[in-house]
């Protein structure tokens, strides 16, 4: 009997160690891990430089609070702002907290309260970030949400035009809906969102919690669109597994986050920042980013070719190494069958298989995964074209 609240349906695998894209369980079985801690271990398990940075910091200093100067935190903030359109950073401990901070900052800076987000979005589990999440199953049973959230169909320009007004504080959006089925924003929707924000003086909050930190082949996914965010939220890949979140914001917002207005006891502590600095040193490298793009393009191309052969595949979507395979049937049984063959992948909605390999994944590991996925999909297909 487990003493844990059963908030997760567990797979019955007990990992005891990991290296790169591989996980080893208690019985010694090795798995190819295309879950990466749910888009967290972007540099793979036990990356030597991240491990070393943490080990070095463990013996120096763990935590002092934000009443003190923290050199590592300044360094992370400088790197993130130098490499984005933002000018300031605030550190917290998770994606939900980063989005919570974004909602607060948007309300305070605009003096307005209405937030527009999208159906099938996912922004987190706290009351505020859950209220921004456009999924009924996430809200169920928790009573009244925060007021003044509106969920529009994603990529629907007309719906956005109709709904917008002067009283909207912010639009909160993912560049690729992750939990909602790996659905990329269309380029024209991106342009539309930005122009609407300018027209109505509302802030654009881009939730890069899953798409950020190299996942799509650029440090942030918004860089691949005509999309200038006012606020960016980050977590997942930022610490490669060390819990950390961040909000990045433009210069115009700095007056609204002054002493006493927002905070986090743990946020940005030296241990977390040591991990993040090591992660950023790797992920801001242009040739590394290029390799992610190439691997992603290769895998997507192979999967599209497979979809031409198999009627089981409805659509292949994604950018970089954030890839969704929409299937005709419910994918749960296929994912379970892949687990039996020692490949770990995720589900995103009933019919979408989601691949999130660590960004350091090797070519032969991609080939191996493709072969396994192809076999399982073929076994499930009613028609092989
Ligand atoms: C995972 C996720 C979150 C929530 O992050 P937590 O660290 O679990 O709070 C928010 N937004 C997106 C897009 C996510 O994928």
TrEMBL record:
Binding sites annotated in the UniProt record for N(2)-acetyl-L-ornithine:
125, 264
For molecular function, the Gene Ontology terms on record are: N2-acetyl-L-ornithine:2-oxoglutarate 5-aminotransferase activity
Residues the entry annotates as binding pyridoxal 5'-phosphate: 95-96, 122, 207-210, 265
The cellular location(s) given in this protein's UniProt record come to: Cytoplasm
| The keyword Oxidoreductase appears for this protein | no
Note the superkingdom of the native organism: Bacteria
The record describes how the cofactor is bound as: Binds 1 pyridoxal phosphate per subunit.
- Indicate the principal place this protein occupies in or around the cell: cytoplasm
Q: In which pathway does it act?
A: Amino-acid biosynthesis; L-arginine biosynthesis; N(2)-acetyl-L-ornithine from L-glutamate: step 4/4
Q: Which cofactor does it need?
A: pyridoxal 5'-phosphate
The record ties this protein, via Gene3D superfamilies, to: Aspartate Aminotransferase, domain 1, Type I PLP-dependent aspartate aminotransferase-like (Major domain)
Q: Give one Pfam family.
A: Aminotran_3
The record's EC number reads 2.6.1.11
Task: Spell out the InterPro entries in the cross-references.
Answer: AcOrn/SuccOrn_fam, Aminotrans_3, Aminotrans_3_PPA_site, Class-III_PLP-dep_AT, PyrdxlP-dep_Trfase, PyrdxlP-dep_Trfase_major, PyrdxlP-dep_Trfase_small
What CDD domains does UniProt report for this protein, alphabetically? OAT_like (cd00610)
Catalysis: reaction(s): N(2)-acetyl-L-ornithine + 2-oxoglutarate = N-acetyl-L-glutamate 5-semialdehyde + L-glutamate
Q: Which UniProt keywords apply?
A: Amino-acid biosynthesis, Aminotransferase, Arginine biosynthesis, Cytoplasm, Pyridoxal phosphate, Transferase
N6-(pyridoxal phosphate)lysine modified-residue sites: 236
Give the family, as the similarity comment puts it.
Belongs to the class-III pyridoxal-phosphate-dependent aminotransferase family. ArgD subfamily.
Miscellaneous: May also have succinyldiaminopimelate aminotransferase activity, thus carrying out the corresponding step in lysine biosynthesis.
HAMAP family for this protein: ArgD_aminotrans_3
Q: How does it assemble?
A: Homodimer.
Name-wise, this protein is Acetylornithine aminotransferase
